[in-house]
Structures are given as C-alpha cells and as structure tokens.
Design brief:
With 395 residues, the protein is mainly β. It contains 1 helix and 33 strands. It has 2 domains: 6-116, no CATH class; 121-390, TolB, C-terminal domain (Neuraminidase).
Length: 395
Amino acid sequence: MRKVEAMIIVIIVFTSTLAGCTNNEEENIVQMEIISPLEGDWVEGQIQVSIDTKMTVSEKIEVWIKDNYYSTEDLGENKNFNIDTSFFSYDSSSPISLNIELRHQSQSIAEVNVTALFPQRMTFWSSEDIQPEFNLNGELLFKSNRGLESGMYEIYHFNPGITMPIKISTTQEYHGYPGPSPDGKYVVFNSRVISDLGNTQMEIFTVNISTGETVRLTDDPSFDDSGRWSPDGSEIIFYSNRDGTMDLWKISVNESGYPLGDVVKVLESDAREHCGRWSFDGKYIVYESDKTGINHLWMITSDGLNETQLTFDENQNGYPAWHPNGDYIVYNKQTSTSSNLHILSLLNGQTKRLTMHPMGIDAHPTWSADGKYIAFHSDRAGNFDIWIVEIPLAI
C-alpha cells in the first residue's frame, strides 16, 4: 500500500478596509471558522468546504494545495467552495491526509485535518452487480443479472483487480444474498422454489463452487432469506417469516453444507429482524430490527441473549458487516435522498461517515478479512456495480 501523503490546502485571504473604520486593528479583523468538513472526517469525491466568516473586510481567497494554485473563491458569511479530491489521488486508491488551512497575511486563522478516500469501481458490466461478500481469502462473491431476464440473478466470484468474475453454476435459476463458507469452497444463497401447490417459496441452499452440487437446506411455505455461515462452519443463520413475523433462525450443517437437524429460532421477538451477521470470532450477531418503529442495528450474543441496540438516529440503518477485530461495524444509512455507508465504533458508540454519494445508493458493505478494504454496491456510475474502498489503518 502506498504511504499516506500529507497535502496542505492553503487559503490566502485578500482584504480591503471598510469606509468609516478608524482603528487599523479593527479594520483588518479576520474571523473565520471551517464549518465542514470536521477535524478527522473522511472525505471522497467532490467535497464542499463550508466557511463561517465574520470579517470586517470584503475578501477573496486563493486556494493553494502543496504550493500549487488550485482556485480563487469569493467568500462572505457562511460561504462554500468545492474541492475535487480525485486531483490528489495520483492514480492510487490509498488514503491521503489533507490539511486544510486558512491563512491571512501569513498567519494561520483556522485549519482542519481530513483523510481523502478513493473508492474504485470493480465491475463494469451493463447490468446490475449487487450484494458483494468477501470470503476469508480476499475473493468477492456477488449476484448479477448480466445476460438474464429482469428479476433473475446468478452468482459470480472473483479476486478484485486480479481476475475476471466467474459464474458459479447451481441447479437453481434465481440466486440471492450469496455468502461464503469459512473455507471458501461453498456458497450459501436463497432461491425461489415452486411448491406442489403451485406457490412460490424462498428457500436456503448451499452450492459447492467446484462441482456445482446444490443442496437445499430449508423447506417451508414461507420466505427464507439471507443465509450466512458461522465462522466455525457449523451453522447457517438466516431470516424467515415462518412464524408470522420476520425473525432470525439458524440450522446446523456439516463441512459440505448439508443440513443437520431442524431449524432453530435464534431470537424471540414481535419485531421484524433480518440480515443477521456473525462476528469474525463467532461470539456475536449483529442484525436489523424495527423494534423502535424504524430499522436500527442491534446485537446479541450467538446464543440469542443480551439484546443490545446499537444505532439511535432517525434514519433507516441496515446491512451491517463486522470489522475482523470486532470493534467496528459498517452499515448503510438511508435518508430521504440517498444511502451512504457509515462505520460504528463499538468502543465509544461514535460513527464516521465512509461514503459521500449525495443523490444515490451506496449499500450492502462487506469488510475484508485483513480489515483494509470495504466492498459495496453503488449506482454512482449510473449503474449498480461493485466498488471497493481502502480504509485508513486508524479508523
């Protein structure tokens, strides 16, 4: 990984005195504050720098970046200007530290330190590539409708930036929410099944990547979805409405993805719970629940106890994924205009915004086993594709 470079953004303020001022010091008082971004923020793409100035002078500012002229801006109270962070990437995807400094007459007025991130597009097909999942070997699974009729999906896997996506063959036509086994040899997914009565059911399956051998795990006239393997490979958690509400269930499996015994309910609740995800050590499960009226992130121990709410804002929060060390969870936060990725610290409860896609969708994040990368699907290029962003070592 390329060493993180420090970039200094210098803002030089030109002033002119106001008529009627008699005190030279008062004439040239400069009061500026950077409203956003905030100290320690992560930024990407086009960022807006917002400045609150109560200057007693009219002014223009020059923006310089590492002794290179960038732009001239007219400012007043609560003014904004944009910086294109891609200008500093130098064709690399590694994070870069940016020091944004306001200067007046060679004196520093305000500054803020941020980190610029550079998400990279990984798939380029004119189709819908969504729901990525890392396996422990750094490969990505995802589902795609490339070459298929609307509403149909197949599973692909590839090593990002190294190999091209390869289709995984199964006996099923529809595939959803693919998830890898711990050894990377199998995939759990959900698929539609037509019952003997002619009804459509959604069931959980596993497939051997090498042979295409497909095994059905569930058989119920309900909706079973989003299966995920436990880190020790002994269980698969999924969500189902077989009891009337959407809840978390699990089933034991052998090393080849065959079912062992009946399904077991993980959590008793009247709320809608789904998208359960095991921590890397298998001790905890994070999931979505609408217990408070809107979707929030919750966590339980793997035995279904110690239910704990993790997010509390007024937005819909979902699709959680664990950091390998268990201290952080990445998820997507949905507002009225967009969906972006955020990282929650379980150490202090604070959140950090990861992506800035103002009018679109960044969703379904997954963390690599080394903690360096987060993959997600996004429509930021006009079509849903798989993207990857490199994460700073210090979150």
